[in-house]
Amino acid sequence: MNLLLHICCACCLCAPLQELRKEGFAVTGLFYNPNIHPLLEFRRRLKALRVFQESDPLSVIYYEEYGLREYLKHVDHEGNDRCADCYTMRLRFTTVYAQENGFDAFTSTMLFSVYQNHEQLKIFSENLAREHGIDFIYRDYRALSECSHDIAKKKMIYRQGYCGCIFSEYERYKDTTRELYKGSSLNKKDEEGVQNVFNIKNTLHRCDCL
Questions:
Q1: Are residues 105 and 187 in the same domain?
Q2: Are residues 181 and 140 in the same domain?
Q3: pLDDT digits 0-9 by tens, 10-42
Q4: Which of 31, 82, 99, 100 has the greatest number of beta carbons closer than 10 A?
Q5: What confidence score (pLDDT) does residue 147 get?
Q6: Which residues constitute the domain of residue 147?
């Protein structure tokens, strides 16, 4: 069975790819992630997947255009369903690509991550599979998460510290500003100014290029 595997990152690919191959799937990868920001992070993850290919040949379809505008267009970053919108955007693209290009089925490495909403991803994928008349391969490989990270470490593949979008990056690192300026000569007003730099909503609204 020809399987299109949406790849969110090289780190999440390592162990699941081995298991899918053991089951007899002919796997082709798809890198489509307009959610990954900022630009340098996007490039790091692209490079990480290419590094993976050097040690484990895998055919991968790459969408290398930086997707900031596409992400902001499709994701309600002011609401509570940001992650659901992001899942749907990437899974819908994967489903349509698989259906239009002769694949028998599709799945995603997002399902294999312990940091994602597994049940939501499963439901969205099943709905999209029915809508487009193609099979969805469901596997719960979350138990392989640590193994996948170990393989990535041995292969010296970049392992990211946050999900991908600029909001998850902000939420992951926002408290580090307190440590960064702890014990410095900044007064309270200066500290508030530093925090404002990291206020992502204000930053997006001020950006005239979006």
A1: no
A2: no
A3: 998 988 999 999 999 999 999 999 999 999 999
A4: 31
A5: 84
A6: 2-154
- pTM exceeds cut of 0.85: no
14 marked ligand binding residue: no
Instruction: Check whether 8 is labelled as a binding-site residue.
Output: yes
Residue 62 DSSP code? E
* Cis ω for the linkage preceding 38 (within 30 of 0): yes
Per the annotation, does 207 bind a ligand? Answer: no
Tens digit of pLDDT for each residue in 170-181?
777 777 655 554
Q: CA-based Rg of the chain, rounded to a whole angstrom?
A: 19
Which H or E element spans position 53?
A: helix 39-55
Q: Quickly state the pLDDT bin for 79 (edges 50, 70, 90).
A: low
Rounded Cα–Cα distance for residues 103 and 95 (Å): 10
Query: 26's torsion region: left (phi>0), alpha (psi -120 to 50) or beta?
Result: beta
SS3 4: strand
Closest of 136, 125, 144 to residue 11, by C-alpha: 144
| Residue 209 assigned ligand-binding role | no
- 82 shares a domain with 34: yes
Residues 6+ apart with CB under 8 A from 137: 3, 20, 25, 105, 106, 107
Q: Are residues 186 and 104 in the same domain?
A: no
